Amino acid sequence: MSEPLRAGIIGAGFIGAVHARAVRTLGQDLVAVAASTPARSRQAAAELGARTAVDSAAELAAAPEVDVVHICTPNALHAPLTRIALAAGKHVVLEKPVGMSTAEVADLRQRWRDTDRVVAVPFAYRFYPVVREMRQRLGGARIRLVHGGYLQDWLSRDTDTNWRVRSELGGPSRAFGDIGVHWCDLAEFVTGQRIARVHAVLPRAVPVRAGSEVDTEDAALVQFETGQGVFGSAVISQISPGRRNELQLRVDTPDAEYAFDQQDPEILWMGRRDGTRILHRGDPALGPDATARNLVPAGHPQGYLDSFTGFVADAYAAMRGEKPDGLPTLADGARAAAITEAVLASAARRDWVDVTPG
């Protein structure tokens, strides 16, 4: 059996805890944690089950006792810390966005190409079994339309605020850059088609939060066309009351519509003119990729944390030299940045904008 990889996590918020849980679940070695201050690092090490606390993010990124660095910080630190980790010969699990500008993303991607390290980006919705089944069933199908949305409500009140609303910390796009890219990645992954051009509007429904002006969008309404000429649309929102984390993707073919809902992830909905079928995770009709990702018997729900753990498992397998199918890497993070750039440009110009190929 392979020796456990030695992991370090930078950032101890919600997503840092998700990374830590996945590392521990997989039996890997959570060596160290670094948070915003030395005191918070010590507290986080105890909370997340790490062996040690490290005073600074830069120190952990270069630490010789760490094999893989998980970067879960505010967005502005993603690229700088990845540069340090790659220069120190580390593998990286990097939260998106992978950079704050086109130039920063291009520089990071070149630095990555000059190494043999794995940089994995957590587009974890790819790892639901029924998503893999949807992808398999759409393989070779003639796709007519792609549509859906990603709705949240955690910024729906005028009094809600967060560091992400500030572009200097979160980047020039918030709603789309934070969750819209997840929807686009999933759409491209299951259809095998890439978004070629976009037309977008970016509403800012709450221009002032906690007494400060906001310079990022609360929602995104996006139309797009793929390179194969298929049209689609998505509504992205962080201000939709009651929608906790509703990611829905629907793909129409001549014979059927296939639909996935992240809040009901145990089923694949398949609608036809002559009847509708619900395929449950664990059904004997599932293909081999979906079946291989069943962790528990049918009837015992799997959810987000299981899918995230599946992502980390594949990332660590790649770090050991394997080639897992569908692992999102820095190339996919750069792809998300290119789509975000096109969405921002389209909203500014009020016109269709091509997505820079990557």
Key attributes of the depicted protein:
single chain; 358 residues; alpha/beta; nine-stranded mixed sheet; six-stranded parallel sheet; 11 helices; 23% strand; globular
List the helices and strands and how they pair.
Blueprint: E1 6-10, H1 14-25, E2 29-34, H2 38-48, E3 52-53, H3 57-61, E4 68-71, H4 78-87, E5 91-94, H5 102-113, E6 119-120, H6 129-138, E7 145-151, H7 167-170, H8 175-191, E8 195-201, E9 208-209, E10 212-213, E11 219-226, E12 231-237, E13 246-252, E14 257-261, E15 267-272, E16 275-280, H9 288-292, H10 304-319, H11 330-349, E17 353-354
Parallel strand pairs: 1-2, 1-4, 2-3, 4-5, 5-6, 7-12
Antiparallel strand pairs: 7-13, 8-11, 8-17, 9-10, 11-12, 13-14, 14-15, 15-16
Helix pairs in contact: 1-10, 4-5, 5-11, 8-11
Brief characterization of the structure:
This protein is of the alpha/beta class. It is 34% helix and 23% strand.
Notes on the structure:
The chain has 358 residues and is of the alpha/beta class. The chain has helices at 14-25, 38-48, 57-61, 78-87, 102-113, 129-138, 167-170, 175-191, 288-292, 304-319, 330-349, and strands spanning 6-10, 29-34, 52-53, 68-71, 91-94, 119-120, 145-151, 195-201, 208-209, 212-213, 219-226, 231-237, 246-252, 257-261, 267-272, 275-280, 353-354. It has a nine-stranded mixed beta sheet. Strands 3-2-1-4-5-6 form a six-stranded parallel beta sheet, sandwiched between helices. Helix 4 (78-87) runs parallel beside helix 5, helix 5 (102-113) packs antiparallel against helix 11 and helix 8 (175-191) packs across helix 11. The model has no long low-confidence stretch (mean pLDDT 97).
